[in-house]
Amino acid sequence: MFELVQAGGWLMVPILLCSVISAAICVERFWTLRATQIVPKNLLVQVWNWIRSNEMDNKKLRELRAGSPLGQILAAGISNHKRGREQMKESIEEVAGHVVHEMERYLNTLGTVAAVTPLLGLLGTVIGMIKVFTAIKLEGTGNAAVLAGGISEALITTAAGLSVAIPSLFFFRFFQRRVDELVITMEQEALKLVEVLNGDRANAEKAESRSPKPEMAR
């Protein structure tokens, strides 16, 4: 391994650094973007049970916010549901924007690694070929060792750059797709909460309006 790095020249150093960054991001995002971590199963049902049994207090809201990204969104909706449907949706969208931003953390860096490493490999190829033609100019084609060294440097950096770029690009697209799927799931859960809370509120207002008003004393 060390011989390959040494043969590839100094450009192998940034390529190896990019590979370490890419691997670290992939491991971190695999752990962070678990569906059970982002959108816990039956969380909306649990929240609705708390609301129906009048157990939803400030402590429950804090637990909900701290539990998961979906919990942060639902907590924002619950905190503002008395202000009306539109205000509730606006608060959910605001918190969802922050949640999505956190879910997309480091993905731009991963995409940059996928774009830069082939260029580093190409630069190594160009430098290697320059060395080859310089050796030909100075010593002719008789020194095979010098020619082989330049060609080897050109090929190794290209292969190394592509070896880092291909999996980096794959996981960049993979994590983007996972984020999109999780966002859609959170949107659906948030819309269910909006509809349920506003439907319950509308029913309560109808019942209140239909209840007989006490007659004023004459």
Which features would summarize this protein structure in a list?
single chain, 218 residues, mainly alpha, 9 helices, 83% helix, rod-shaped, disordered C terminus
Itemize the secondary structure elements and their pairings.
Elements: H1 2-8, H2 12-32, H3 35-38, H4 43-52, H5 58-67, H6 69-79, H7 85-103, H8 107-139, H9 144-210
Helix pairs in contact: 1-9, 2-8, 2-9, 5-6, 6-7, 6-9, 7-9, 8-9
Question: What's this, in brief?
Answer:
The chain has helices at residues 2-8, 12-32, 35-38, 43-52, 58-67, 69-79, 85-103, 107-139, 144-210. By secondary structure, it is an all-alpha fold. α5 (58-67) runs antiparallel to α6.
Task: Provide a descriptive summary of the structure in words.
This protein is mainly alpha-helical. It has a domain at 2-114 and 165-202. It is 83% helix and 0% strand. It is built from 9 helices and no strands. Helix 1 packs across helix 9 (144-210). The N and C termini lie far apart (100 Å).
Average pLDDT works out at: 81
Q: What is the element string, with H for helices and E for strands?
A: HHHHHHHHH
Strand content: under 5%
Question: What value does the Rg take, in angstroms?
Answer: 30 Å
Shape: rod-shaped
The beta-strand count equals 0
Cα distance spanning the termini = 100 Å
Sheet/helix structural class: mainly alpha
Helix-residue proportion: over 70%
Low-pLDDT residue intervals, each spanning 5 or more residues? 202-218
